[in-house]
Design goal:
Elements lengths: L17 H11 L1 H6 L7 H4 L5 H14 L3 E5 L5 H13 L3 E6 L2 H13 L6 E5 L2 H14 L6 E6 L5 H10 L4 E10 L5 H6 L10 H11 L4 E5 H4 L3 H7 L17 H6 L6 E6 L20 H34 L4
Parallel strand pairs: 1-2, 1-4, 2-3, 4-5
Antiparallel strand pairs: 5-7, 6-7
Helix pairs in contact: 4-5, 6-14, 8-10
Length: 331
């Protein structure tokens, strides 16, 4: 049975945060950071939209929080899922439940974790997370296995409506001391709300999230990894333990911001819930449902049922194209 993270006994007091916490975790779990190198060969096939410092900090935060349950929104090919599962395995407890809209990516994420021997730490649910997560959460809550969210990983649709949905429906379920990770957040919330110049200009999810956090600053504390990797003092503190490696991967097309910076940008915002848990049952606050054409719905049904055949063929074609491109001399 999974311990209810909303119980007072499951709450952890606020301690070091931001750079102080990162430096402490790097030193404590340096052996685990070194073992992450076993996943490096997968970058060629999985891609690396989730950068190196983010990857290491995700592993460290899961080790630190030692959650029984992680909710992950949009694992895509399973790169982030792999690091969550590895941390759970090293903790000797816990499971990550990942919600993926695309049946092909759902199959790929599941396969990625299984190939690493960590399938027992992972479950992938295919469908719109706004429909599927309430079903999973309420089933686990009725079974007495969960009464709140202790660790939430968000890297999904970066729109204002989607951010409004998860703030209204998931943030109230997060327990005191619970951790929230939001990817592709380029600037700290205070910079966004103050109107400070940021590149690129914050739109959609980033603005809605920033406004919520600033309006409820007594209930949260946060830490911008994108800002940390531009801080020489932070980099100096974590480099002795394998952190702060920001060089762009050779052969990988950099993001325009990375091309300008000359290093990985690591656009992650970490949030800790300091206030009370506002809800135990899923709130069911409304959202605008996806309007999927009939043809696309039928295609997704077919792809889901035939993914075990279709995905390996698709990935072999993709790998052949990747190798051919790598073998072609650049002009």
């Amino acid at each position: 049975m999974i311990a209810a993270p909303g119980d007072p006994s499951a709450r952890r007091p606020s301690g070091p945060w931001g750079s102080d916490l990162a430096a402490e975790l790097y030193a404590r779990f340096a052996d685990g950071i070194a073992r992450l190198e076993r996943f490096d060969p997968l970058v060629a096939t999985l891609g690396k939209s989730y950068a190196g410092e983010e990857r290491r900090l995700l592993y460290l935060m899961v080790r630190h929080a030692a959650p029984e349950l992680v909710f992950e929104l949009s694992p895509k090919r399973g790169w982030s899922t792999l690091h969550i599962a590895a941390a759970l395995e090293d903790n000797g407890r816990g499971k990550v439940i990942s919600f993926e809209l695309d049946p092909v990516y759902g199959h790929l994420a599941r396969s990625t974790v299984r190939r690493a021997g960590l399938g027992h730490r992972s479950e992938v649910v295919v469908g719109d997370v706004r429909d599927m997560l309430p079903q999973v959460y309420e089933r686990w809550r009725r079974d007495g296995r969960v009464s709140g969210i202790g660790f939430l990983f968000i890297d999904s649709e970066h729109s204002a409506p989607f951010a409004t949905w998860y703030i209204a429906n998931l943030f109230p379920l997060v327990v005191p001391g619970g951790l929230i990770h939001v990817h592709d957040i380029e600037a700290a919330p205070e910079r966004v709300v103050s109107g400070a110049a940021t590149i690129p200009e914050p739109l959609g999810e980033e603005r809605v999230l920033a406004e919520h956090l600033i309006a409820h600053r007594e209930a949260y504390r946060w830490w911008s990894v994108a800002a940390a990797v531009r801080d020489s003092a932070y980099l100096e503190r974590v480099r002795p333990w394998g952190g702060g490696r920001l060089a762009l991967s050779p052969g990988r097309r950099p993001h325009p911001i990375e091309a300008a910076l000359g290093m990985e940008r690591n656009p992650t915002l970490w949030i800790e819930k300091l206030g009370a848990q506002e809800a135990v049952a899923y709130p069911y606050r409304p959202f605008e449902p996806l309007r999927v054409p009939l043809g696309r719905r039928l295609r997704n049904v077919i792809r889901r049922r035939l993914a075990f055949v279709y995905v390996p063929l698709r990935e072999r074609r993709r790998e052949r194209r990747r190798r051919a491109k790598a073998a072609t001399p650049s002009a």
